[in-house]
Automatic annotation (TrEMBL):
Protein name (record): Gamma interferon inducible lysosomal thiol reductase
UniProt xrefs under PANTHER family: GAMMA INTERFERON INDUCIBLE LYSOSOMAL THIOL REDUCTASE, GAMMA-INTERFERON INDUCIBLE LYSOSOMAL THIOL REDUCTASE GILT
Keywords, ordered alphabetically: Glycoprotein, Signal
Similarity annotation: Belongs to the GILT family.
InterPro entries for the chain: Interferon-induced_GILT
Keyword S-adenosyl-L-methionine attributed: no
A molecular-function term among this protein's GO annotations: oxidoreductase activity, acting on a sulfur group of donors, disulfide as acceptor
One Pfam family matching this protein: GILT
Origin species: Angiostrongylus costaricensis (Nematode worm)
Entry keyword Protein biosynthesis: no
Signal peptide residue numbers: 1-17
Superkingdom field: Eukaryota
Length: 187
């Protein structure tokens, strides 16, 4: 009996002690997305590092097509600047898979790509800055936008931001921190 109880407690603590998978579908110029990332997710991420396995998919409502030269052209809900900023966010995610969230949050909600370059890239090495600028202004970034569009459309997202916690849709009717902490003992 004692052995069974020990095994059950170990299983429960393993399940609830795990890292919480959080997937957020965003648009770079959506005010609700900006509020979620800056006011809820970023502070939680900074104060409780290691609790979330965070996946951000910046694209939103929009489409991407390619022309006869196989160049992608994306159109975003809030206009061309949003596509520019989405590209920069997708490039950051691609180039810094484990350390992109600060940069993605910095870019979120800004007015122009130029503003994002000056405000958000200045702390990076010159080499990293060049790579991100090149990515965000070329077909490399547009291809990354296309991949985000495919992920967004496959999931059937219709409202932004859309959040999944451990693969289950979260309606955001209460704070994200509460939901994340319900999924782990690490809070």
């Amino acid at each position: 009996m004692l052995l069974w109880l020990s095994a059950a407690l170990l299983l429960i603590s393993t399940v609830h002690g795990q890292v919480v998978n959080v997937t957020i579908f965003t648009e770079s110029q959506c005010p609700y997305c900006t509020r979620l990332l800056r006011e809820q997710i970023w502070p939680f991420y900074v104060t409780r590092p290691g609790i979330m396995n965070l996946q951000i998919i910046p694209f939103g409502k929009g489409t991407c097509d390619y022309d006869y030269n196989r160049n992608f052209h994306c159109k975003c809900m809030h206009g061309p600047t949003e596509c520019d900023l989405n590209r920069l966010q997708n490039c950051a995610i691609s180039y810094f898979p484990l350390r992109h969230f600060g940069l993605v949050t910095c870019v979120q909600g800004l007015a122009t790509l130029r503003e994002a370059f000056s405000r958000c890239l200045s702390r990076l090495s010159v080499r990293s800055q060049r790579r991100l600028v090149e990515c965000a202004t070329t077909q490399t970034g547009e291809l990354l936008n296309y991949y985000s569009m495919v992920n967004t459309h496959r999931t059937g997202v219709r409202v932004w931001p859309t959040v999944y916690v451990n693969g289950v849709y979260f309606d955001r009717s209460y704070p994200m921190a509460t939901k994340i902490c319900q999924e782990t003992y690490w809070c």
